[in-house]
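hey team, just a heads up i'm posting the complex here instead of the shared drive bc the drive is being weird again. everything in one block, sequence lines first with there labels, then the predicted structure for the whole assembly after. its two chains so it's a bit long, scroll down
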Amino acid sequence: MADVNRGNRPLSPHLEIYRPQLTSMTSILTRITGNAMLVAALMIVWWFVAAATGPDAFARANGFVTSWFGDLVMFFSVLGLWYHTLAGVRHLIWDNAIMMDIPTAEKMGWACLGGSVVLTLITVIAV
Amino acid sequence: MAFMTDRKRAAGLGSAKSGTAHFWAMKVSSVALLVLIPLFVFTFGAALGGTYEEIVAYYARPVPAIIAALTLAVGFKHFSDGAQTLIEDYVHGPAQKIAIIGVTCLSYGAAAAGIFALVRMAL
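-- predicted structure starts here --
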């Protein structure tokens, strides 16, 4: 980023200049949840490999995954998963260049946030 | 320069390059995951907490095993493409190339390990 402002041109406002908006926050949250799920995904792969290896390996992996720490990771990953899924649906809708006006985008943002909590509760109760 | 058109002069100068294929891959994998994720959450969730014998027997069945294998394959491809976008936004220069190679290798490696484990339990 050495010559980012050649000739002292006006800079576009950076992130910290903006007041937090629902549209930007839900967008950032989509990226965070999507990438953070790597932790749970690798835990699940470890769990599968351990189950295929034998009882001792499975006991170690299963002990970790079902420990309070594993449960905590799984709980927030389920929340992140449902949020990311709903936010993904929102992107699939936006790809058609519809519902992009700010009031509708904000309504869908609240739907993603609320919907992910509801789906997480359903998952926790059902599983 | 006599045969250069304005379009030809501009072609390839943007930042996006081969973005269309990436966008389409994300779209296809996200639609597939829309189906796979609920199936995986409720099959894996049902199995989790079981004993070693129960888990091995459960994933020897075709339906849970196929759902899990597809979720790992499509999920890690989707992760790889998504994490690549994240890296392209925040990491630049040689570190960007290294990070993208790392994330791609990790994604395919994790998917392969998980699918191998499922095949071993199924057979």
